[in-house]
Amino acid sequence: MITKDMLNAIKQSNVSKNAELTKERVTEVWNYMSREQHKELYKYGISNAMIGRSKKLGNMAVKVASAFALACGVNPYYLTAEQEQNNYDADEEKVRQFIIEHGYEKALGIITDDSDKKIYGKKTTEPKPEYVAEVVVEPIIVEAPERGIMPLEEFAGAQMESMAPEKLDKLYAMTDEEITCFMTTLTMQAKYSDRAKDLLGLLRLILIR
Q1: What's the confidence (pLDDT) of residue 54?
Q2: N or C: which end of the chain has fewer CB within 10 A?
Q3: Which helix H or strand E contains 56, and what residues bound it?
Q4: d(Cα 147, Cα 166) in Å, to the nearest integer?
Q5: What is the enclosing helix (H) or strand (E) of 154?
Q6: In terms of Cα–Cα distance, which of 66, 54, 57 is closest to 26?
């Protein structure tokens, strides 16, 4: 069964092949859905900000398309403008296929070994070398082409607006100890990863402003 936690493990990168078609189709599907289906969509962690971004900008993430499909049966490939047909007959297996084809099989608990064999929902028992735990930061797409560089405060506000309420609650509930642990891990990662280095720099910039 595809869960909210699985979808939350998927990045919010835009995969739409045609922004104009995605805008039209998201609006069409949203208007087709019942109130109960809207509630079902929200249960997967999809916020109004995400839906509004798809309607206005034509952005469509794998996570959002999958949640729509699970909530009302819409063909997820229809929302990304990868296919033309939409019969509202998408089932969980089709959503699973959609997620895997876009490279997020690990979010479903699928582990691929060197022989390309897939093990569903199982963990390998072989010992792993010690490593620094990865800090996973879900990217947020912030569109502001007409204004050039977005002020840091507005950038932060846009990210907060795009997050699901329950995720915001967890964020604000973090203890000082957890934040210290997070910063320590990110500082160590920055020695080996340019991405982690950029994230660390952004956090330090926020702190000194």
Answers
A1: 93
A2: N
A3: helix 48-57
A4: 31
A5: helix 152-162
A6: 54
